[in-house]
Every structure is written in structure tokens, then in C-alpha cells.
From TrEMBL:
It is found in: Cytoplasm, Nucleoid. This is Recombination-associated protein RdgC. Its main location: cytoplasm. It comes from the Bacteria. One of its GO terms (biological process) is DNA recombination. Keywords: Cytoplasm, DNA recombination. One of its GO terms (cellular component) is cytoplasm. It comes from Oceanicoccus sagamiensis. GO terms for molecular function: double-stranded DNA binding. PANTHER family: RECOMBINATION-ASSOCIATED PROTEIN RDGC. May be involved in recombination. Belongs to the RdgC family.
Length: 307
């Protein structure tokens, strides 16, 4: 359950649904497995999995939700191979070529025939709502996957007025200035990786890992005009992560000290342990998100008002 990536969104209007009311609405859009002819299914499940029945998990003012996606695994190569075989059979038996439209129809027919035999692959997408802070935080490295969850949540409850966190200062300019000066912002330390991009049309990219980010080699690339698009940082010695030029936070790693806080609580069952982990994680992430927003100049109020 510990989040590995953060896509952070700002509510432009207060989120006023109670956990109980939200759970009832999510239940109406609960996950149902793929039928024989379904390529994909999406729906809500309990964040506690088999250890719970409620569609939300609330603790310390935060509300956890979880979506499940199931896709049929039907490799395109398998379908295409059968299309070719069927087209050749038609050509041999009927003495004519198979046109583009007919091939497309054959592909649909073969897909329809193979779907019931295809394996189903499932994945979970966790997110939590922080009503007091006015944030929606999705555990995803991909903004597309995060938007998929938000879109389904919007379909479920009618409206989800959120926008991605928009800082006052341009992230790549800020990160570039940090590395150029050799000083991380207060409360942070440089990690050991970054990504540099060339602003010219050629768009060259240099990815540095396990490097001293204050070295003359990296500084020379910046002096030559490259800018920082991703930067490894650690926050107060407790959380390591990579932030990119959209302010997405990725590859989160919680220090042992934070994990030990959860292990010190004598939980009686999986549900209780989940509650402890959730409370500790959201407390740590609240501080991290607030600090990241601050060092990038705070939030752009005009973007919030214009949404």
C-alpha cells in the first residue's frame, strides 16, 4: 500500500462527500470481472482487498480509494497471424485477393473468437483524498493512468473538480538553478540522479545515475545550455524521490526509520496494520508535498481560479 509514485491534483472546490456517502456511490460502480467478450473492465474495490468490504478506508482525515482494472491478454501477433492464414485460405480457395476492409473484418471476427480463451490480467490503482488540504493524490507514475482513475471517479460521483498542481515557478528553471549553484533547497539534499535536456530542436538527453550532481561534469552541461528535467532529491533524510518538470514525484523510497514507526505498533490483523501504514504514510507525504510546492514558488492561484 505504501505509495511509490505521486500524481498530485488540487481540488478547485471543496470535497464535501463524507467517507460513508462516497463508499455508497463507489459501490454502485464496483468492479466486475471481464465477461467472455470484454477486452477490459474497470471498477472500484475495497482498498483493504479481501480484508475489508467498504469501498473507502478513512483514517486521520484522509480517504483511501482503490480502482481495479482487468484487461484480456490477446497478443496482436497471434491475431495478425490468424488473419494472414485466413486471408491466404480465401485467396487459395476463391482465387481472389483480400482487401483492406475485408482484412479488418477478419481481424474483428478472429478477436471475437479468441477473447473467451484469453487470459485476464488485473492491476490495482490506489489514490487518497485529503479534504482538509484540498488534494487528490494518485499512486501512479503515469499521468494517463491517474487521469483514468479521475475520469472514472467523475463518472461515479458526478464531478471531480481537480487540476494538476501548478507551481508559480517553472520547475525545470528552478531545478537547473539549484544544480548550477550546487545547493539544494532548504530541507532537501541532492540525490544521485538527474536528467538533462537540450532545449534545441535536436533535443538531446543525458541521464545521470549514481553521480555526484554537484560535479564539474554536470555543471559544464548546464553551462552549455542544458536544463534539468528530472532531479533526485531526499527530504529531511526520510524520503528519497525523483521530481520531474511536471512536478510528478516518482520512485519514492521511505527510510527505515519511517517503516519502523509502522512496525512498532502491535496490529492485531491486516486491517489494523493497513490503518497504521496509511496514517503514517499520509502524514509523511503531507509534509513532503507541502515542502515540494513551497520550494517551487508555491501554487499558482490564477490557474486554480481559472479552472
Amino acid at each position: 500500500m505504501w505509495f511509490k509514485n505521486l500524481q498530485v491534483y488540487r481540488f478547485t472546490k471543496p470535497f464535501d462527500l463524507s467517507p460513508e456517502a462516497l463508499s455508497e456511490q463507489l459501490e454502485e460502480y464496483a468492479f466486475q470481472p471481464c465477461g467472455s467478450q470484454d477486452l477490459s473492465r474497470y471498477g472500484w474495490v475495497s482498498p483493504l482487498g479481501h480484508h475489508g468490504s467498504e469501498y473507502v478506508h478513512a483514517a486521520a482525515g484522509y480517504i483511501m480509494i482503490c480502482a481495479k482494472k482487468q484487461d484480456k491478454v490477446l497478443p496482436a501477433s497471434v491475431v495478425n497471424e490468424q488473419v494472414v492464414e485466413k486471408a491466404l485460405a480465401i485467396q487459395t480457395e476463391e482465387g481472389r485477393s483480400v482487401g483492406r476492409k475485408e482484412r479488418a473484418n477478419l481481424k474483428e471476427e478472429i478477436t471475437f473468437e479468441l477473447l473467451p480463451k484469453a487470459f485476464a490480467r488485473s492491476s490495482l490503482q490506489f489514490a487518497y483524498i485529503a479534504p482538509k488540504e484540498g488534494l487528490l493524490v494518485v499512486n501512479s507514475a503515469s499521468s494517463k493512468r491517474a487521469e483514468e482513475l479521475i475520469s472514472y471517479l467523475r463518472e461515479t460521483i458526478g464531478t471531480v473538480p481537480v487540476i494538476p498542481i501548478t507551481p508559480n515557478n517553472i520547475p525545470q528553471h528552478v531545478m537547473t538553478a539549484w544544480l548550477k549553484s550546487g545547493h539544494a533547497p532548504k530541507g532537501f539534499e541532492f540525490g544521485h540522479e538527474c536528467e538533462l535536456k537540450d532545449p534545441t530542436d535536436e533535443g538531446g538527453v543525458i541521464r545521470c545515475k549514481h553521480q555526484d550532481l554537484t560535479s564539474s561534469e554536470i555543471n559544464n552541461h548546464i553551462k552549455a545550455g542544458m536544463y534539468v528535467s528530472k532531479l533526485g532529491l531526499s527530504f529531511s533524510g526520510g524520503i528519497e524521490f525523483v521530481v520531474d518538470d511536471t512536478l510528478a514525484i516518482k520512485r519514492l523510497a521511505f527510510a527505515d526509520l519511517i517503516q519502523e514507526k509502522a512496525n512498532q505498533v502491535d496490529a492485531h490483523d491486516a486491517a489494523e496494520q493497513f490503518d497504521v501504514d496509511f496514517a503514517i504514510m499520509t502524514l509523511e507525504l503531507a509534509a513532503l508535498i507541502a515542502a515540494v510546492i513551497e520550494v517551487f514558488g508555491g501554487e499558482n492561484s490564477e490557474a486554480i481560479e481559472a479552472a
